[in-house]
Amino acid sequence: MSLNTHYGAMQIARPGVLQWVQRQTPMPASGEVLIEVEACGICGADVADIERADPNLQPPRVPGHEVVGRIVALGSHTPAIWRIGQRVGVGRLGGYCNECAQCRQGQFQLCQQQPFVGSSCDGGYAEMMIARATGLVSIPDELSSEEAAPILCAGIATFNALKKCGAQAGDSVVILGIGGLGHMAVQYARRMGFKVVAVGRGADIADEALALGAHLYIDSQQTDAASTLQRMGGAQAIVTTVGHADTVSALMPGLAPQGRLVLLGAGKDPLPVSAGHLVVGERSVLGSITGSPYENEKTLNFSVLAGVRPMIEVMPLEQANEANQKMKSGDVKFRMVLSMTRASPAP
Distance of alpha carbon 30 from its chain centroid, rounded? Predict the structure, then answer.
């Protein structure tokens, strides 16, 4: 396959600002592949990557970690399961090392020597991208590249959190925060057989939450959500996609005995937790990261099987600045995706 000598990318010109550039097409090293990118989702973490970028980094970083495209070149020692022309994805975790203690235990998502795509290595706001083979995810034919992209982060994060939440079919499960992650969590929870309670701010999201699969929507601005949950007998699990510590803490009294709070939103502030509330009811708090490539493939396959799809708005790659601003403002229902299949500007 003949490759272009250069490709277009949106790199971080300075903190908070992206610029269109032409870069020389690289060749993959040992254990790597070169991907021709077709779509890249925009995650809330991208905003932080762009705004907190190191201005001294050269070349500047290319953000984006919900990447779908096709392999166009293989480095040496790449496993035979990956081939030229195959459609693959890469999520936030850029490929495990296979050497550290966590990898030797099979806990690949906890590998301490893998890059964070779009942060510590270049990501998918580009027409081409280098990726470690250990980070690759096979994409089902039933999903378009634009549909699959958000599942590689928002999808797997919520799918895995629900698998770890300890609830059984028929139990009440709360999804706190109905945004990019939450709208996926509601769909997965409904199809896993839970009684789904969506908790959000404002009545404007109620119809969407119910349409996505929630059995009940609670507007936390109008109702004491924890008291409502207590009257229902408590929630067996609360999966929170928001990082605001006080909001999460206020909902914890709604946990049933032996219930679990699963944290996906990673805020900086300490989380106030009543030790007595945990001890007396044997409740617990659990953090959950995204997951391994194998788990990502299970998420994609479940999405196909159960008919789960992200609600997306697609914009061309060259409008990445506008797309990120829209994502940052919250004026999206529910996920932005950049497309590389549309015409790009001249260099």
Answer: 27
